[in-house]
Amino acid sequence: MTAPRTLIRDGVVITVDQELGNFTQADVLIEDNLITAVGPNLPVDHVQVIDGSRMIVLPGLIDTHRHTWQSVLRGIASDWTLGQYFERIRAGIPPAYRPEDVYAANLIGALEALNSGITTMLDWSHIMNSPEHADAAIQALEDAGLRAIFAHGTPSDPPSEWYFQSTRRHPEDVKRLRRSRFANNEGRVTLAMAIRGPDFSTMETTAADLRLARELGLRVTMHIGGGLRGGQLRSIERMHQAGLLGPDMTFVHCNCCADHELRMMADTGGTASVSARVEMQMGHGMPATGRLMRAGVRPSLSVDVATAVGGDLFDEMRTALQMERALQNQAAMSQGQQAAQLELKAKDVLAFATIDGARTCGLEDKIGSITPGKQADLILLRRDTLNLTPLNEPCGSVVLSAGPQNVDTIFVAGKMVKQHGRLLNCDIEHVLQLATASRDHLFNTAGVPVGSTPVNFKQTA
Question: Among 20, 31, 103, 155, which is most buried by a count of CB atoms within 10 Å?
Fold first, then answer.
């Protein structure tokens, strides 16, 4: 539990607020669910004091695209291409999912995210095989204690009817959710729509799905421009021609989108999510980080799938940063030159994982920076550690050296949910048992190959 007034005293504070700047030693005051003051030596009393003298205080990290329902399939796609992923994960296993499997996966996936410093996560949920599946996914997000955007997607049973030029419209159950659990946008868990878009459905279907989302007042997110096929479709250009683009849209991946399409996205206020680790493995194309920025779009970052990569954003920040730097350096070297300075900075990538993530989720007025008046979604990183001592450049150290092991304390909406390196009010052993039992059921039922060597799930359960 957290007192109504909490003071984090004497921390290194990275606000990600351009007007406030950063502090080598400052306090952060939390009152109820809000940040109310930031600065050195705040004159307050009658507060619960947290010693921040060995901490880096920064906004909670924000993951803008994660298929959390796949968390119990962790690691099985570590050697797979995108084609193998579609065949084995998207087509092979989803029919075996029960609502309780979605709950178990969303719970362990959301807790993994929260434990690593992700205080907000967009759950891109295309396992909506029934209304009960949706309810289970939402309940797990509620129970995990993080801030979440539940992006209601399509069923995966059978996927052949819902993907690749599908004419089926978005499931009507999203209307039930909007009328009931999500009648407003004020909860810790809110609603969005994860639509297929022109890469995976017809333009007529895309237009209908967008109309539905806008009638319901929901933001939309879609995969776009991943791999050769995604680039050839020129989906953003076609949506622009149809007058469908708008500031309520997030485009995931964008690797093979043309530069002029990225400018169309920028001109209409769209946002983007980059999942560099998965994109580099599965053949989506080079991460579009730098091209997006040059087009006027500040990207956000996302984990995508725990089937292939770890569930924290520290590795995602590092990968996005260093991949873009490699592209810059290689371009210079191909001209017989050396880059005079690096274009993409560590502070840019930290912004991708915080304030730009908030903007992508339509929450930039509520979260994403340590700004008085915003929700108190904060993480405290231990800096008296082998990987962060001595602390010489805080932003660079957070992005390039820190990891989940440094996350000591977490607040979500002013409530302390992690302290001294341990999640609070969480029966981890029960969560692990749920996840393992779900994995056993799915593997036994599906019987599909795993990894580079075909393995019968019945033999591994």
Answer: 103
pLDDT per residue of the chain (461 residues) written in tens, 0 to 9: 455 899 999 999 999 999 999 999 999 999 999 999 999 999 999 999 999 999 999 999 999 999 999 999 999 999 999 988 888 887 778 999 999 999 999 999 999 999 999 999 999 999 999 999 999 999 999 999 999 999 999 998 776 788 888 899 999 999 999 999 999 999 999 999 999 999 999 999 999 999 999 999 999 999 999 988 888 999 999 999 999 999 999 999 999 999 999 999 999 999 999 999 999 999 999 999 999 999 999 999 999 999 999 999 999 999 999 999 999 999 999 999 999 999 999 999 999 999 999 999 999 999 999 999 999 999 999 999 999 999 999 999 999 999 999 999 999 999 999 999 999 999 999 999 999 999 999 998 987 544 433 344 333 32
Q: d(Cα 132, Cα 144) in Å, to the nearest integer?
A: 18
For residues 196 and 166, the answer to whether their CB atoms sit within 8 Å is: yes
The number of beta carbons lying within 10 Å of the beta carbon of residue 160 is: 9
Distance CA 238, CA 260 (A): 12
* Sign of the dihedral defined by the CA atoms of residues 164, 361, 321, 79, in that order: negative
Residue 106 CA, chain-centre distance (Å), reads 13
Indicate the burial class of 452 (C-beta count within 10 angstroms; 0-12, 13-18, 19 or more): exposed
Task: For residue 451, give the amino acid letter.
Answer: G
* Domains in the chain with CATH codes: 5-59+368-423 (2.30.40.10), 61-360 (3.20.20.140)
The total number of residues written for the chain in this structure = 461
Which residue matches tokens 């992005």? 399
The residue whose two tokens read 């873009």 is 324
Q: Is the pTM of this model over 0.85?
A: yes
Nearest-angstrom CA–CA distance, 411 and 188: 13
